[in-house]
Amino acid sequence: PLLFAVVANLFWVRGRELGARRRLALARQRLRGGALRAAAVALTLIVGLGGFVLYNTRVLNAYQTPDEIARGKAEYERKYKRFEGAPSPDVYAARTRVELYPAAGAAEVEGTFRLVNREDRAIDSLHVLPSALVDTRDVRFDRGARLVVDDSALRYRIYALERPLAPGDSIAMSFRLVHRPRGFRNAGAPTDVTANGTYIYGSWMPALSYSPGRELLDEQTRRELGLPPRTVAPGAGDVETRAETRPVQLAESETIIGTDPRHTAVAPGRLVREWTDPSAGAGGRRYFHYRADRPTRYGVAVLSAEYAVRRDTARGVALAVYHHPAHDVNVDRMIRSMRASLAYYGEHFGPYQFDELRVVEFPLYAAGARAHPHTIAFSEGSAFLTRADSGAVDRTFFVVAHETAHQWWGGQVIPAAAPGAAFVSETLAQYSSMMVLETFYGEAMARDFYDFNMKTYLANRGVYTNREVPLLDVVNHAYLHYYKGAVAMYTLRERLGAAAVNGALRRFRDRHTGPDAPPATSRALYDELRAVAPDTVKPLLSDLFEHITLWDVRSDSAKAEPAGGGAYRVTLFVDASKARADSVGNQTPVAMDDLVEIGVYAGSALGASPGEPLYLKQHRLRAGKQTIVITVPRRPARAGIDPRRTL
């Protein structure tokens, strides 16, 4: 603005317009004294500040344009896609020491992985993919290994082992991670470690095999850069896929965290020791040592802040909510949700595997919630800042119930790394938490949430850029495994009853828990559900889980006539159709011979909870127009097809 003001003043004309040449001459005459000094100051500021910004965004920090990022992803895939599926070891023991420096936003991690070869063939090289979030240094192994690929631009390293790792053999890998922000970035300041709120999780750790998640996902950009369409994973029922799927790794874990003296640090596992090192500067440093009671799904999570703690117990489990001292508005609600969830899941799915369960708040820089063993990490913006009284659904209660359900679905039952993994973990957690919501608050709230899931699924399927797949094949489609999955499971519960569905889930959990259990695939879960379904319901299961099925059922009109004795004869004129969609949304009509609810109500509204019906039974409908005649005991007000919107 200063330079613009100087230039405007130089060319400003008082009186009649003089023309461009005369104005330029006038500007030269005026460029002296104060005007010259002001212009010099402005140019100095522009160069100085511009250089300062350039130094921070280009020298101290890496900067890439969107095109450069896309080209990098494409290059990563071209160079290293051939290693996808190469034999790789599993982490079966992880020990980390984390030093947090919240005031500086910095952290250092020293880690040791014990890796085991669970393949049926020897491993002659180890692939290490450093995270973009930290500087990965000092990678070492306890046997001879030579670095043969060190691609710093694409973050890919390959170490050739002097002696191949035989099946069942193990190797130790140590490393150091450094997170030390410098200057400022062009966009996206690092927020994992802040002055009063740290949340570090597994994305800091180096990956040990080719990661498809680093590939370019947008199909149009892939075409522009000469990449083929992304390979659609084989279906969950594919025999080869099922045969090759192996159990997900379980690992022993131990974490020591050092932090500021006023902070409390939390990690998955039991707190076995806490101490203060007075020699570590003013006020010393506070240390926390956590150790898992049993092998769990491998993952890292570290949280630290100045916490207040609310404690309780339920079914012999110690409950706790670690929260900012001023953020206690929903803490009691979280405790109630943990209590209700442990009671429902323990009764219907099997015992909880730990003796502690805690919710831990982290800053608003990240959103949502994430389940770890023992621990639920929960963003302040999702539940801690606003009282959750408003709205039809208690979202805070539901999310805590959902994340608690992951202690079973994802914790005890670890989904196989195959298509349908999200159906096993996320869909079951969504269904389980809906059942807790219904048990605690009643059917009306569960119905409201069911409607929300249905609307969200239908709205998203029209705009989502990735191809839709059946629920049995879902991997990472939130609108499918959360919203469509909840609708499908709740509909199934309506048809089979809670006892049958929960019994199937209990057997699935019993058969697929533990290190030697068979792979927990979506097909194995589907087989359990089919086993409790009568033949009349099995076609519905196929529609809900094996296919992308859409129903269009409506009553064009209805009439009611006295039938004597106070009863009424209700006639509905119904139109019904059914279609199946492919992955890009093309719909093909299919034959319809389905059981659909018909409802008649004395109340004035057909809402999510229309009250006790005069009539609510299933009728077999076929495609096309048809007439249904029903007799009800008294005068009706409303009638309709599929009044509870289960299709």
Automatic annotation (TrEMBL):
Keywords: Membrane, Transmembrane, Transmembrane helix
SUPFAM superfamilies the UniProt entry points to: Metalloproteases ('zincins'), catalytic domain (SSF55486)
Domain Peptidase M1 membrane alanine aminopeptidase: 341-514
Domain of life: Bacteria
One term of GO molecular function: metallopeptidase activity
InterPro entries listed in its UniProt record: Peptidase_M1_dom, Peptidase_M4/M1_CTD_sf
Entry keyword Transmembrane helix: yes
Membrane-spanning ranges: 35-55
Protein name in UniProt: Peptidase M1 membrane alanine aminopeptidase domain-containing protein
Species: uncultured Gemmatimonadaceae bacterium
